[in-house]
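Deliverable D5.2: sample structural annotation.
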Amino acid sequence: MYQTIQKHYPDAVRITELETKIIIDLVQKKLDLKSTIWATSFCSDEVNNLFSPFYDLFAGPGPFMLGGISGLPFSGITGMKAFLSHAPSHGAVLILYGPHIGISEDGQIGKVNRQNQFASSTCCGSLVAAVESLKKEEHLPMNNPLDYQQARVIEHLYNKRESIIESDFPLKEATDVAYQEIHDKLYNILRAIKPQLTDLKLYLIGGIVINTDWAIEDYFEIKNIEFIELT
């Protein structure tokens, strides 16, 4: 597992290391943790319920869930505006975002062994299914309210279909593409509402969550850190 993580995500850090970095960064910027709220744009998968110390450190206790399956910020402008309206007066906002990928203890990409399961299961299930749809050139109907989010996931990946299916590691490539789509969509949402925002400090950290087998600590590869101060 560790060799696979090192090969594909050489800059990945343990979740506890990322937690420590975030806290130190906020303190160094003289931000009051109890006047900070936080949100995630991660996949709905329960393995992404990370960062447990933040529940006690920040206001909320949070997090506000901006993401749907795969991590795309399906809450959109309305959800982002709702979240930001919850920020304490003169407070700060932390947003963590990105897709996730499983790497099991035996080094399988796209698999993790979950608690009390006898066999490994897919991770991220949405992206695994999307890759299979891309291979078959299968489109889900956008007007199907019962699987709308997955149809949107496939749509977001389709422009990179060839690079994904021709990759030596299609799921890893799809995860990288998903990261960029999540990043772009999140920033487009923030740009759309920026004129309405004042007296707010935003701390954004984007990357890829690397889930491991149950009882083994997860990792995170940071791809973007940005601090935005709106006056």
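Annotation notes: The chain has eight helices and nine strands. Helices lie at 2-8, 15-28, 54-57, 76-84, 125-135, 148-158, 161-165, 170-193.
The annotation will be released with the project's public dataset once the embargo ends.
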